[in-house]
């Protein structure tokens, strides 16, 4: 190996280590989000151009949608995501495993409902005994909530010797899974719950009965710690845009619905009925605030579900004071 | 055992090492792998633990999963139980079904020319490609997993049985016929015993196909205690140590069963005089 070779290799290694985050300031911000109403700040912010405007013309916004926190976390681990809207379940798990992330704001609360197939006999949580229940992904926020509901009802999973089966199905695919009778119920984020309801399926638990009377975070805003350290201004600007997007949802819900619908249609190929979307929005609260107590309790539910062995110290990855 | 006769011909190429030497080389290899693994993770810290965990982290997952006593522990153990039950059921059905179809194909050439060709074609489709169809047809349940396992397992058996039957030396058929074997007695008394070594190779291929198909299907059809689900849970919760633990267990189980079948195969081949013991 010649000296030039060594230099080249080490330069390459250094570039790989830095993972595309340059100290000079990023020229691209890679944002992750899901096509759910609980991610409405992302959906409307993207459709309105709020984020791009806040980042300025020199920075390119590269927004990528994910089916669930699982795939997003993988992209995050691979260093392909700088900022993301994500549920507390995957965020806590990722942080617990040592991924360099910081929770910097809340985005939505509640907004998940339990829907049973219209032709099933399910009328209450207790009726889930012996049934097959879908969640967006194993280990995701709704999965953790569902496992807690089942425990409260004294029901056990088939994998733990009980008779309830929890199975991952992407929310946009639940209608087809219901039609094929592959699942009997689902705990889904909005607007998929309201959409299923509009198709004649039955709501068994609303956003308030899922957990804590509806006072729980469903979506958070996270940032890659190294990206935040290298680009504090960009993150601060994005946070302002996020706050603006949340405020917009409260200020002009009707206009926001149109924007959200356009994004959902583009991402999932499904147009959500306006009334269903309206109903879904009343069940979801958009806020930049984050209830730390609820988040800690969520981490405890995560342990209860068997996805982690201990509740992590939230102070190590929640940074709500990220401002400039 | 009589003393070996003095050799006049050149010594044959050694294909077997003494068992203790194989074992010691394998142990050295394992130590090397673990050493390099430790070096790039805990030693040099080339990768963050959420991308590539260290041997000790994976060991922690294995120990909690196999003999942990906490309320959520022991999941790998129940997963292994579930997966083994499923693969043995599927493999058992596949072997019976494959033997039947193989016999029919061996007995009737038109069937072999048509079905045999289709089966070879189907065999080239990765098992995971059948999972979406199985889910639609059977639902998100164990039957869908079994379907894929049986489908993948029975084809090698059927092809091996029919192939082995066709490769039975004509002399054996003639001898059998002279001794009065006809129809069923010819099949069970002459052809199948003669085909056994090749059939056993098919059974071993079928095992590895079935085991791989099982894990692939379990990955997509969760909700039943299975190693595939443990792998998926690890992935879903960013627990790479659990992912690696599952992969190691999948490899160990697959390897142990393959070794068992290989031993049976070797025994039969030696009994048939196809392999010489030193």
Automatic annotation (TrEMBL), chain A:
Residues 1-23 form the signal peptide. It comes from the Bacteria. InterPro entries: ABC_SsuA_sub-bd (IPR010067), NrtA/CpmA_ABC-bd_dom (IPR044527). The keyword Cell membrane applies. This is ABC transporter substrate-binding protein. Keywords: Cell inner membrane, Cell membrane, Membrane, Signal, Transport. GO terms for cellular component: endomembrane system; membrane; periplasmic space. Belongs to the bacterial solute-binding protein SsuA/TauA family. GO terms for molecular function: ATPase-coupled transmembrane transporter activity. The keyword Transport applies. It is found in: Endomembrane system; Periplasm. PANTHER family: ALIPHATIC SULFONATES-BINDING PROTEIN-RELATED, TAURINE-BINDING PERIPLASMIC PROTEIN.
UniProtKB/TrEMBL annotation, chain B:
Keywords: Cell membrane, Membrane, Transmembrane, Transmembrane helix, Transport. The keyword Thylakoid does not apply. The chain crosses the membrane at residues 20-40, 88-109, 115-138, 145-167, 179-197, 240-261. Pfam families: BPD_transp_1. InterPro entries: MetI-like, MetI-like_sf. GO terms for biological process: transmembrane transport. It is found in: Cell membrane. Its main location: membrane. It is a multi-pass membrane protein. PROSITE patterns: ABC_TM1. GO terms for cellular component: plasma membrane. Residues 80-261 form the ABC transmembrane type-1 domain. PANTHER family: ALKANE SULFONATE ABC TRANSPORTER-RELATED, MEMBRANE SUBUNIT, TRANSPORT SYSTEM INTEGRAL MEMBRANE PROTEIN. Belongs to the binding-protein-dependent transport system permease family. This is ABC transporter permease. It comes from Deinococcus terrestris. The lineage of its organism: Bacteria, Thermotogati, Deinococcota, Deinococci, Deinococcales.
